[in-house]
Amino acid sequence: MTRFDVWAPEASRVRWWLGPAEPGAVPGVDGVEREMTPAGDGWWWLDVPGVGHGADYGYLLDDATAGPIDIEPDDPAAGLLPDPRSRWQPHGAHGPSRVYEHGRFAWTDAGWRGRGLPGSVLYELHIGTFTEGGTFDAAIARLGHLVDLGIDLVEVLPVSAFNGPHGWGYDGVLWYAVHEPYGGPDGFKRFVDACHARGLGVVLDVVYNHLGPSGGDIGEFGPYQLRAQSPWGASVNLDGPDSDEVRRYIIGNAREWLRDFHLDGLRLDAVHALRDQRATHLLEELAVSVAALEVEVGRPLSLIAESDLNDPRLITPWRAGGYGLHATWDDDVHHALHALLTGEQQGYYVDFGTTATLAKALTCAYVHDGGYSTFRRRSHGRPVDRRDVAGDRFVAYLQNHDQIGNRATGDRLSATLSTGLLKVGATLLLCAPYPPMLFMGEEWAAGTPWQYFSSHPQRKLANAV
């Protein structure tokens, strides 16, 4: 017996759909439909005997009818929708979901005791471009190189299911599912298991501030999003009506990555774009939940924020009035190093580029810690109280996916700096009082550009992006 349940508070009727099991069947066509029962608080449920791991399913809202998958529908609610909590999307972000049972995977990391952030060296990589194969299994073959390099934690760019086969991953639409072209959920587990076997911890980049522009359609089920806009589209509903369930959706997702995929940490993308006016911020609620999970699994779990606010309260312990996250990316260290080494002073580098700003970044973490920011034309940041916040709570880097990929030509520092200056930068980074992070290929001064890319199948969307 398998229990199917879904949150659809605005639907008057929800039907569960079981896909045909015949080989070669077209996803979305034919299949069996059953009415679901309302359970209160917007939830619907159905117990189905004889259906388990590997079965394709989906949901039909109100008067919707099943039919061939349409990746550019005129009315998303008119057709079959994947499960917002889908763990497996073999047919892509627009196709039906597939039942996935976590307990079927044979882990070999029972002796793994975790890897904390203090004293660690991180290595940021993108599964799709780290190897020619672009899969988890292909990446496993390169893990020996990371061990020889002295890496402790592998930080993986987002792997949640997104629209199209290729992309950075920051436009995920089904957060519980692993992108199928990379190898799906079992592929990711094989990768994590292989990392642990080699003494490497794994941190996953997750995006909770917006949903991608196409696929998943979880907004058809309920108010997951607000009309207010983030820089990347509609904001996630963290403090509006019905937001309790949305917050549970996010925290449940974080816990599942850490617990069921045996991850050692999460990097939280652009937390400054989380619109949350509640007395208890989502980040604090998440930190409390992960602290409890840490006790349950018996190993350290890290939450690493990305934020442009320069606000140390993110990483200040609860007893001192903070949110209790474990660390944050530190762009000011990057800017201080980059501007001094390259001489660039345009845009947000305008207040950097001197040995004095580098010295401040290496001793105070933030250059902008309450003073005037010329780029923003206002004061910015807040001082770090070193009595409560240690240096190991700031992740430093000379390059990362954003600082390379957001440049017009995606050029790395090796395209600008001499070998000597690259060595100076590496020395300053690795000798700084912060956990250092390398971006894939940085260790051998790779010259290949790494620009932003996506592969939306919809022509209009692809042209717009």
Would you mind describing this structure in some detail?
The chain is an alpha/beta fold. The protein contains 11 helices and 21 strands. The protein is 23% helix and 19% strand. The strands form 6 sheets. Strands 8-9-12-15-16-17-20-21 form an 8-stranded parallel barrel. Strands 3-2-6-7 form a 4-stranded antiparallel β-sheet, with no helix packed on it. Strands 1-5-4 form a 3-stranded antiparallel β-sheet, with no helix packed on it. The longest helix has 18 residues, at 243-260. The chain is globular. The model has no long low-confidence stretch (mean pLDDT 93).
What's a quick, concise take on this entry?
The protein is α/β, with parallel strands linked by helices and 465 residues long. 23% of the residues lie in helices and 19% in strands. It is built from eleven helices and 21 strands.
